[in-house]
Amino acid sequence: MAKRGTPGTSIVLDHVAVCVGHRQLFEVRSQTFPAGSVTGVKGPNGMGKTTLLRLMAGLARPASGLISFSPPLPPQRKRLVGESPQAHGQLNPIVCYFSSTPALLLDQTVAQNLEFYCNSFSLLPRRSDFLQSLKESGLDGRAEQVARSLSTGQKRRLTFSALELLEPAVLITDEPSNGLDREGQQLCQKALCQLAERGACVVVATHDEEILSLCQSVLDLPKLLQEAEGSAANGAGQVKRPLRLL
Question: Given a cut of 70, is residue 206 above it in pLDDT?
Fold first, then answer.
């Protein structure tokens, strides 16, 4: 996908151990998630997809190895929502992580949730931007509705509205199409692709084959684990080393 503005930021993993408790699930020896593209992560439940995403988002620290941004994200300054792309030709230097369950202030309105997202990243909200993002996400007319009363799919759509406002340099998202109807699934696919087209690094863990088909590359955990186990078997009799995914 074409990048816009200045070169984007990629995520680089170097010998990163993915563990649950004291049990190592796997180790990613060398993997780059490039800017300006959508990279998928696939595997069955319990394989470690969510754990890997949380490590990449900085919500947890790997037992070993290094996760870095290349080039490093520049310092963020306070700016108006929507100013960055038009005035500077680049995305906001922020990393967004959206879990499989939308993180919302359930007792606040839809508009207040968007204000919270923007304020969290030092963006100055404008009402017109909120209304436009809601319209594009299929939530037109719901700005004053309390988030708790939204359906599961509508809550997910609200996160797409937030993405439209935030325009992060890096998006890491877990099962973004969960709970969506057909129209919502298409909206999800459009949101991911548009963000990548603007130069963002988009990483998505999903079972959704349609989303995986849109990815420029897919990190297939079961396949890599099988290859790593095969390499270990071929090295029988040699000094044993920790399992690594190449």
Answer: yes
Lowest mean pLDDT of 42-46, 78-82, 141-145, name the range: 78-82
Rg (the chain; Cα; Å)? 19
Q: Name 138's bridge partners.
A: none
Pick the CATH number of 10-234 from 3.40.630.30, 3.40.50.11810, 3.40.50.300, 3.40.50.720: 3.40.50.300
Contact 230, 215 (CB under 8 A): no
What pLDDT, on the 0 to 100 scale, is given for residue 49?
93
DSSP for 129-171?
HHHHHHHHTT-TT-TTSBGGGS-HHHHHHHHHHHHHHH-EEEE
Query: Where do the domains of the chain lie?
Result: 10-234
Q: What is the pTM of this model?
A: 0.84
Region 40-47 average pLDDT: 92
